[in-house]
Write a structure and sequence with these properties.
Blueprint lengths: L1 H17 L1 H4 L1 E15 L2 E14 L2 E7 L2 E10 L4 E2 L7
């Protein structure tokens, strides 16, 4: 019985690591203008109106054109997150 558990452990770990929910979180909400979302390496998404996107967990910054959106930064988690953006008038 112990040898079966040892053989299955790598398969279970691999399946968990490859699961989409382990790598991306759903970020949804609304934006009253066009919002550009920036990650550590540059732009990752552009949203407006009601939206839903998948983002890897991490820290992100949001801009409306060249002005910060409100909120101007947020975190994507491995669980669903709601972020409602307001662009300055």
């Amino acid at each position: 019985m112990k040898s079966i558990a040892l053989r299955l452990a790598p398969v279970v770990l691999l399946a968990t690591a490859m699961s989409p929910s382990a790598h991306a979180g759903v970020v949804s909400g609304t934006a009253n203008g066009t919002v550009t979302i920036l990650g550590p390496s540059g732009p990752v998404a552009q949203v407006s109106g009601p939206y839903q996107i998948d983002l890897p967990p991490g820290q992100y910054t949001a801009f409306c054109g060249n002005r910060p959106a409100t909120p101007s930064s947020f975190q994507s988690l491995s669980t669903p997150v709601t972020v409602n953006f307001t662009c300055p008038s």
